Amino acid sequence: MINYSINIFVNLFFYVKNLSIQQRIYILYINYIQKYLLNINSLIGDKIIKMLAPMAGITDGNFALKLIPYGFDVVSIGGYNTDFQTIAAGKKILERGRNEFDIEKENLPYVIKKEIRLIKNKYPRVKISLNLRAAFPDSIINLVNIVDVDKIDIIEINSHCKQEELLKIGCGQEMLHSPNRLGKFIKKVVNDLPDKKVSIKVRSNVKGVDDLNIAKIIEKVGADYLHIDAMKPGCFEADLNIITKIANETDIFIIGNNSITNSVLGKKMINAGASGVSIAREAINGKLNFDISKI
């Protein structure tokens, strides 16, 4: 898709330069291919996006510093709970023994600033993705406006977590069951934070959810990335078919996640149609046992 767009661009550029309507055609075409050209530096050669995926209660600044030397060019911090509803849910999750970031709402902006500063001071070129849970889009927007927005590279809306406490308040994976609400939620964040890249992390093969429809909605409302946990119930490998299906029928930048435990499986994710990969459980102990540069 990228190479095809570039060829058209080059041919059209030379074709239109002798026409009186050159500027108008040029602008129209630039609008069409802009998203491809913006991402091209991540797609040439081995420059596939390699992301450390978010893990609640684990992926903070210190954890990211342990993993960056393995070759990650994007690191996630979070998921953070941004409002009273998600904070209360997080406390309940913590009480039953799961990892969570237990941070009060008034302290959250300062904690995030500290984590971002910790990473950027040592690795200024590494991009930071801020994974956030929220009952309402304004919770994300208000938080990001308090934090030093220049230091946040990607805002990631969490439509992925499946803990019952979050589902009961309409967060995480539950958002996928309400496509219209999800679209409005994302659009509000995109429109109110126009200078930020916006990613949506989702889970595939959720019962009753049309994955392709969700992907099309996410693309339509202006998100920059679809970060998809390509899980398939009962399987121990990623569902590469859903990656291919979405890649063939949308133009959104896909970051593929799930069961990437070696470079071969990472390559399979890319060959299936993803433009980047993210790794979670294989890195949960603060180290990585394979060379991600080979993906």
Explain this structure.
Helix 6 (137-146) packs parallel to helix 8 (179-192) and helix 9 (211-220) packs across helix 10 (240-249). It contains 11 helices and 8 strands. It has an 8-stranded parallel beta barrel, surrounded by 6 helices. Residues 1-10 and 34-46 have low confidence and may be disordered. Helices cover 42% and strands 16% of the residues. Strand 3, helix 6 (137-146) and strand 4 form a beta-alpha-beta unit. The protein has 2 domains: 1-44; 46-294, TIM Barrel (Alpha-Beta Barrel). It starts with a helix and ends in a 16-residue tail after the last strand. By secondary structure, it is an alpha/beta fold. The protein has helices at residues 2-16, 22-39, 61-67, 84-95, 108-122, 137-146, 164-167, 179-192, 211-220, 240-249, 263-272; strands spanning 49-52, 74-81, 127-133, 154-159, 197-203, 225-229, 253-257, 276-279. The protein is globular.
Shape: globular
The helix/strand order is: HHEHEHHEHEHHEHEHEHE
Spatial arrangement of strands, main beta sheet: 1-2-3-4-5-6-7-8
* CATH fold descriptor of the largest domain: TIM Barrel
Secondary structure: helix percent:
40-55%
CATH class call of the largest domain: Alpha Beta
Supply the number of helical segments: 11
Domain count: the total is 2
Radius of gyration: 19 Å
Strand content: 15-25%
Low-confidence stretches: 1-10, 34-46
Distance between the termini: 20 Å
Mean pLDDT figure: 89
According to CATH, the homologous superfamily of the largest domain is Aldolase class I
Helix/strand/pairing category: alpha/beta
Report the biggest beta sheet as strand number plus sense, adding barrel if it closes: 8 strands, parallel, barrel
Number of strands: 8
